[in-house]
Structures are given as C-alpha cells and as structure tokens.
Design goal:
- This protein is an alpha/beta fold.
- It has two domains: 125 residues, Rossmann fold (3-Layer(aba) Sandwich), CATH 3.40.50.2300; 246 residues, Rossmann fold, CATH 3.40.50.
- The chain has 15 helices and 13 strands.
- Strand 12, helix 11 and strand 13 form a beta-alpha-beta unit.
- Helix 4 crosses helix 15 and helix 8 runs parallel beside helix 9.
- The chain is globular and about 70 Å long.
- The two termini are 24 Å apart.
- The structure holds adenosine-5'-diphosphate (ADP) and magnesium ion.
- Magnesium ion (MG) binds next to helix 5.
Length: 379
C-alpha cells in the first residue's frame, strides 16, 4: 500500500493506545508505525521512522508532557503535521504557528480519527506541491492605514512559528522599514544585490537580520535610488527569496506602478488594508475595479480592516456592501502599545503577545499560512 499514511502515535494511557490500535486495525488508509509512551523518544523515532503525521496526547505525562512535546517537535524543525489529542475539559486550539496543526477531541470514532489524519496529510501535501514560499503582499491604495506596522508584525508572528520568513521593504522611495527599525544609513539594500546572477550566498551580505527573528530586505537609503530598481531585477530577487525562504512578506507604498505591480503579481495573497474612513473606502473600491481589470482572481485579495474597533460611526455594512463581501480579517486599535513599540522599533507581537492587537495578528498569520505551515516546513 504505497499511499498509506504513516502515523506515529504518542500515547501513555494503555486503554487509549489500545483503542487507537483497534480503530486502525480495521482499515488500510493509515499505517500505524508505532505507539510511543515516552515523550523523550519521539524526536529520535520521528527521524528514524519518517511518519507523515504525528498524533500526540495533550495530557501525556512523564519527563516531557504532551504540549511540551508538541512545542519541541515544532522547534526541532521536524516538519511533520501534529494532531493533538485532548479531552473537552482541557481544550486546545489548533494553531499551526505553534505546531498544533489539528486537534482531535475525545471521544472520537474511527471515522473521525482517519479523516483527521487524512486532512492533516492532505494540507501538508498540497502546500508541498505548491513548492516555494508563500508570498503575501500588504497593500493599500492609501498611506497611513497601517501597512508597514502590519507587514512587520505579521512577518514576525509568522517567523515565530519557526518558518524561515523574509520581509521585503517595498516602500522603495521612503524605506519605511529603515525608519521603523532604526537601521544605520549604510545598511545594504536590495540595490546591493548583483543584477545578473544572484545567488543564495549573496543574500547573506545584504539581508538585515532583525533581532525579532526575521530577515529583512531593506529599501535603498535615498529617495532617488528607488528608480534604480528594475522590475526584471526585482523578479529575479523574488524568485531567489522564494526558494530560500518559506514565507515572503512585502510592505508596499500606496501607489500603483510597475514595481508595486510586480510585487502584487508575484503574490499568492494580497492583504489589502482598509480603515473606516470614506476616502480610504473609496480608493479601495477603485482598486478593486483595477484588480478585476488586471484579472486577479477575487480570492487572491483578502481585506483587512485595521483599527476595526474605531468605526467612527461608520456602518460596517457599508464597507461590506461596497466590497461585495465581508472583510476577511480585522485588527483592533493598539493604542499606546503600537505607538511605543513602533517608536522603539520592536514588534508589538513580541513586546506584548497577549494584547488584543497581537492576538489579532497571530490569528491572521495562522489563517494566511494556516494549513500550509506544516508542509512549508517540510521542505
Ligand atoms: N491597529 C493600530 N492601532 C494603533 N495604531 C496603529 C494601528 N495601525 C497603525 N497604527 C499607527 O498608524 C500610523 C501609520 O501606520 P503605518 O504602518 O506607517 O501605515 P502605512 O504603512 O500604511 O503608511 C503609525 O503611527 C502606526 O503606529
Ligand atoms: Mg508604510
């Protein structure tokens, strides 16, 4: 059975282990490689047995507890989707960004177990087949709506999941990221990449390694240098970055020009930021027409309402009507936290991960990268 899904189960309660064995005995879709009761042995076994999916009991006892093991598997870079088995009294939320790709609550039937394992494998396989990194461009036809703040924090949130993440400062003229991160004037930019044959090793010298764990390709340090970036060079750079990284996030300025269109074309997802004000909504509608004319599929664009809680009396229905759909994502106002962290050049998602605005960004990170996180890591 070459298509059998190889499953490794980590379970220390003999009755549950026995139950799972029994359920899997009567089917052929899944091959049970082993049932391990000692969490310390799992990483070694996973390397040896190469499972497609690992099922971990959240309540595993012993030297390594269940959720510690899930975190360890995630950190280890063993890129296998993990399903967490739990009981209703101990709820666990799926969060691919922390290595919890799926959750299976007890009690479950054989059918539920098998479909859950198949889904986890499927999501991983699809992302693997896509190949290369996922690229998300944060865009808006308006300045000041939060693009740079969101792009930076989103990239850091995704980077926290262990995915190799690069952020491109596509604000080529003003290089917002330089200001935000207070990088020295002489820090290299994408203009320092060779234009003819760029290689992976060239990236080493040019990327800014931010303490937040992500790498950043900075914009040129002066306005007039932006013109020197050609679409051709940019496309080459993007294709290299997509081979080296697992996730590429791009911050953009509020313009529609060749360079910005090169970013938008190359993206899997355009995350378009909207705020509750009439001129922004108007520009968003104009942009929606332009995207239709270009021929982008509607699913390529996902709308994000920033400062979603400050409606300023705006009726949310107006925006949904104008867009023809409810915006997919929302980020609440971060108030003083955003001002302080932006001024310090640090991401709020790390400074205060439990703040509402940070939780919003983590949610968007797992919705955007979601299932594919597992498979993206598999590369
Ligand atoms: N959700 C938010 N809550 C509070 N302040 C925000 C939020 N999003 C953005 N800001 C603030 O708005 C300003 C503009 O944000 P910025 O990311 O530079 O926008 P853009 O890149 O679209 O021009 C910044 O001062 C930023 O701190
Ligand atoms: Mg900006």
């Amino acid at each position: 059975m070459p298509d059998q899904i190889r499953l490794l189960v980590v379970e220390d309660v003999p009755q549950v282990a026995q139950y799972i064995r029994g359920l899997l005995n009567s089917q052929t879709a899944i091959k049970l490689l082993d049932v391990v009761s000692d969490g310390t042995k799992v990483i070694g076994l996973a390397q040896e047995l190469r499972p497609d999916v690992i099922l971990v009991d959240a309540l595993l006892q012993g030297r390594i507890k269940g959720m510690q093991l899930v975190a360890k598997l995630h950190e280890s870079g063993i890129s296998v989707p993990v399903i967490v088995l739990t009981v209703p009294q101990h709820p666990v939320q799926p969060n691919p960004a922390t290595g919890i790709h799926s959750v299976l609550p007890m009690p479950f039937t054989g059918y539920e177990l098998v479909t859950r394992v198949q889904q986890a494998r499927q999501v991983a396989a699809e992302a693997e087949a896509q190949g290369g990194a996922r690229m998300v461009t944060v865009f808006a036809p308006k300045g000041g709506v939060g693009k740079t703040t969101i792009a930076f924090n989103l990239a850091v949130a995704i980077g926290q999941s262990g995915l190799r993440t690069v952020l491109i400062d596509g604000s080529l003229q003003f290089g917002d990221m330089r200001a935000l991160l207070k990088v020295p004037m002489d820090a290299p930019s994408l203009l320092d990449l060779p234009t003819d044959r760029i290689q992976e090793s060239d990236l080493e010298d040019v990327l800014w390694r931010d303490p937040s764990g992500i790498d950043i390709l900075l914009a040129p340090p002066r306005v007039e240098l932006a013109e020197m970036v050609t679409v051709r060079d940019l496309e080459k750079t993007l294709s290299l970055l997509r081979r080296v990284y697992q996730v590429v996030i791009v911050d953009t300025p509020a313009v529609v020009n060749d360079v910005n269109l090169a970013f938008l074309d190359a993206s899997d997802t355009i995350l378009e930021v909207v705020t509750w004000d009439s001129t922004t909504i108007h520009s968003t509608m104009v942009m929606a027409d332009a995207f239709r004319a270009i021929g982008y599929p509607p699913g390529k664009i996902r709308y994000l309402v920033n400062r979603s809680d400050s409606t300023g009396g705006f009726d949310p229905g107006v925006l949904a009507n104008a867009l023809g759909r409810t915006p997919e994502h929302a980020i609440s106002s971060g108030g003083a936290l955003v001002v302080r962290t932006n001024n310090e050049g640090i991401p709020f998602v790390l400074a205060d991960p439990s703040a509402q605005i940070s939780r919003d960004v983590f949610d968007i990170a797992s919705e955007l990268i979601g299932g594919p996180v597992a498979a993206a890591v598999r590369r």
